[in-house]
Specification:
The chain has helices spanning 3-17, 19-23, 56-64, 86-89, 111-122, 148-163, 191-194, 199-215, and strands spanning 47-53, 69-77, 97-104, 130-131, 134-135, 141-145, 174-177, 182-183. With 223 residues, the protein is of the alpha+beta class. It has a single domain, classed as Peptide methionine sulphoxide reductase MsrA (Peptide Methionine Sulfoxide Reductase, Chain A), CATH 3.30.1060.10. A six-stranded mixed β-sheet has the order 7-6-1-3-2-8, covered by helices on one side. It has a two-stranded antiparallel ribbon with strand order 4-5. Mean pLDDT is 90; it is low at 4-26.
Length: 223
């Protein structure tokens, strides 16, 4: 869905449903257990994690506000370099998902903690090929593991959450190895920070930061 249509849709929903009803369409935060077998915090070189879960604007904003995260970049993963363009991604035919590349300090935040944030407040892992008003495989829930260890932990955590029936519906998040990540166009970067009053941001993404601060006060960083 292009930017103009996102804004138009958000405005139309407000007019037809009202803010309270629209809020019900957003993903709701969930209190989750810590991942079993998460690595302890330890000094080392910066690590990379890549997450997809709907429009990358909100995912990027959430991780930018997590302590230990040094950078969060919106982009595309799952397809080829030739099709890593916003105008093509919207067709849903490129294999790409809107994704976010997170670079983090393992001495401050662990991969397991990032997974917990991802599943709890960043998106709804039970929505198949969509998130809130955005529909299509480019908005799918998927973890692109940068290492075999990340892949094992992500799969194990999904199994843990499924066994605990942490969500009312089955988790549909895919997990696979990261093959490539392509940064999105410049105007997508820091989108929430640049456009805090845009209706789409106000109703779909800004609440995620409120939930992050509420559910993860020790990990939350302002700014």
């Amino acid at each position: 869905m292009n930017i103009a249509r996102r804004s138009t849709l958000a405005i139309a929903l407000v007019a037809l449903l009202g803010a309270c009803s629209l809020a019900g369409a957003r993903s709701k935060p969930v209190t989750l257990p810590d991942p079993r077998g998460d690595a302890p915090l330890a000094a080392g070189k910066d690590q990379v994690a890549v997450f997809a879960g709907g429009c990358f604007w909100g995912i990027e904003a959430v991780f930018e506000h997590v302590k230990g995260v040094k950078t969060a970049v919106s982009g595309y993963s799952g397809g080829s370099a030739m099709t890593a363009k916003y105008g093509l991604i919207g067709t849903g035919q490129t294999g790409h998902a809107e994704a976010v590349r997170v670079v983090y300090d393992p001495a401050v935040v662990s991969y397991g903690q990032l997974l917990k944030v991802y599943f709890s407040v960043a998106h709804d892992p039970t929505q198949l090929n969509r998130q809130a008003p955005d529909v299509g495989p480019q908005y799918r829930s998927e973890i692109f593991a940068a290492t075999p260890g990340q892949q094992s932990m992500a799969k194990a955590y999904i199994g843990q959450l499924s066994a605990a029936q942490a969500f009312a519906a089955p988790i549909v998040t895919k997990v696979g190895p990261l093959k490539a990540f392509y940064p999105a166009e410049a105007y997508h970067q820091d989108y929430l920070r640049q456009h805090p009053d845009e209706p789409y941001i106000v109703y779909n993404d800004a609440p995620k930061l409120v939930h992050l601060k509420q559910f993860f006060p020790k990990l939350y960083k302002g700014g």
